[in-house]
Structures are given as C-alpha cells and as structure tokens.
Write a structure and sequence with these properties.
Blueprint (H helix, E strand, L loop, with lengths): L1 E4 L2 E10 L4 E9 L10 H12 L9 E3 L7 H9 L3 E6 L5 E4 L13 E4 L9 E6 L2 E10 L4 E12 L2 E9 L6 H10 L2 H12 L10 H29 L6 H21 L3 H5 L2 H7 L7
Parallel strand pairs: 4-5
Antiparallel strand pairs: 1-2, 2-3, 5-11, 6-7, 6-9, 8-9, 9-10, 10-11
Helix pairs in contact: 1-2, 4-5
Length: 289
C-alpha cells in the first residue's frame, strides 16, 4: 500500500485481481509532509482509506496490507469501514488459545487456554501444502488487538533452514488458503511501482506544486491501468496471462511514429490503420507480439 519515491512518499490504494494475478491502481496520494504532533503516518494512511472507501466497488470486502499496518488504530479503522483486514504479524506477538472446554456453573466463564507456542503445532490444523509451504491455521485471541483472529502459520523447509511467516485475518470465517492467496497477491502492487517508474515516468516529475504532483502520480499509474486493460482484452483470445509493459510501450511508440509520418507526408492515417501491416509495424521490436 505504501511506497517511497526518492524523498516524496506516496500512499496507494490498489485493486488486486487474484484470479488474474495483477493489480490496478485505484488512488494515489502524496503523504502530507507536515502533520500535527499527535498525528502519525498511520492516521494519514487511514484517512486516505476513509476518504476513498465510498468510491470502492461494493463487492470489495478485504484490505490486504503488510506488517507495518498491523496496528490497533489501523485495524479498528478498517473494520469500522465494514472491511476485513488481512496482514502479517510478528512471531513474538501475544496470542492466546480460546478455551473450548466445559465451563463452571458459577463464576466468570473461562475464555483462554494458554499462550500460543509456535514450537508446538499440534493444536493447529494443517490445511494444505502449497509449493512446499505448509499452511497451519487456528482461531486465536490477540491480547494486543483485543480481538479474535484467524491466523495462518506458514512453514517452509529450505535445505537445513526452516522459514516461517505468520498471517492473520479479522474475518474468522475466511479460509486459510484464501488468506495465503490474498496476501501473496499483495506483491503485485510492488510491480505497479516498478513498471510506473520504468515505463510511465512516475518518478520523473519536476513539479513542486502539490496538485501537479497529485495529477502526475495518478496519470502515471492510470496509464498502466489502461495498458493492462487493453492487454487483457487481447489476452482473452489466447488465454495468455503474461504482460510485457516494455512491449506495449514499444507498440505505442511505433503507432505514434507512424501517425507522425502519415501527418507530415499527408497520408490517410485512418486508411493505414485499417491495413493488416499496420499491426505488424507496431509490433516491430516488441518482445511479445
């Protein structure tokens, strides 16, 4: 959700198509440089979400963010907007097992049954193994967040080393596989910044005006959206799911050059575009025709 461009931090909301495994920019804003003494970055990022929540499609239910956003204020803000958060937790976070035994007839009911210990996975449910990653899940209570969470503990053995990660969801009914799949797809947002910086000039603006910067950031990101949508329309015919932004930039540059030639030479560009050779010339130098 957050990415820095040199000294100008920007916050981005993106829509991720999990089935197609790609991300589309929804809203990009420059993070305010000045803030009040009691205001934090989390307050600013939450304000961004709150202001744009009404514009999000009604079908959107989950917000996926990295471990930086796993904070009480942010999680409460997300759930207040009728969204569920999926994120990452530290391994030393204080989690407690929910008590499921018989309750006493008198006195306060027992809620917890000890602290979660990730060295002992016998109380977890092993859901599946995906690409050598074992998925263990359970519904536990977070003492810090003061709420129940569904957690997914990822375990992968690489040689003699064991790699682990701890994911969570505020939606207790969400399947562990979906939590893993949604969080993994979050990385597609990083490709937005990479492609925008390499091909659509995201970090090339020299403006200092806040409005000009806002326009530039969103124009660079929107250009990527349009390329992806055009590519997706063509990909339906071949079921191809790999996109090359570099190739699309070559195609667009070739098409623009042909239009310039036609204009300067007094040729009928509409007629030229109707010829099958036009597409061949546009694809000249492209990696994926």
């Amino acid at each position: 959700m957050l990415h820095y461009i040199k000294i100008t931090p920007i916050s981005t909301l993106a829509l991720v198509d999990v089935d197609y495994n790609t991300a589309y920019n929804f809203s990009t804003r420059q993070t305010p440089v000045y803030r009040s003494e009691d205001e934090t970055r989390i307050d600013q990022y939450l304000a961004h979400l709150q202001e744009d929540r009404a514009s999000l499609p009604a079908s959107i239910r989950y917000l996926v963010a990295d471990g930086y956003y796993s904070k009480i204020k942010f999680i409460e803000g997300v759930t207040a907007l009728e969204l569920e958060q999926i994120g990452k937790l530290r391994h030393d976070t204080n989690l407690r097992w929910l008590y499921k035994g018989e309750q006493k007839s008198k006195g306060r009911h027992r809620r917890y049954d000890g602290k979660v210990n990730f060295d002992d996975l016998t109380r977890f449910e092993l859901i599946d193994e995906i690409d050598s990653v074992k998925l263990y899940t359970a519904i536990v209570n977070s003492a810090h967040f003061k709420r129940d969470l569904r957690i997914v503990y990822l375990v992968k053995t690489v040689g003699k080393k064991v790699q682990t990660a701890l994911l969570f969801s505020t939606d207790l009914k969400l399947a562990a596989k979906d939590i893993y799949r949604f969080y993994k797809a979050r990385f597609q947002i990083e490709f937005l910044f990479r492609d925008a910086k390499q091909f659509t000039g995201l970090s090339d603006c020299q403006a200092r005006c806040r409005k000009a910067l806002h326009f530039h950031f969103n124009a660079a990101m929107t250009a990527l959206n349009l390329i992806k949508l055009e590519d997706r329309q063509q990909a339906h015919e071949t079921e191809r799911r790999v996109i090359s932004i570099a190739s699309w930039k070559v195609r667009k540059a070739n098409a623009h050059l042909l239009e310039r030639f036609s204009s300067l030479l007094g040729l009928n560009f509409s007629f030229i575009k109707s010829k099958p050779e036009f597409e061949t010339l546009c694809n000249y130098g492209a990696v994926l025709p």
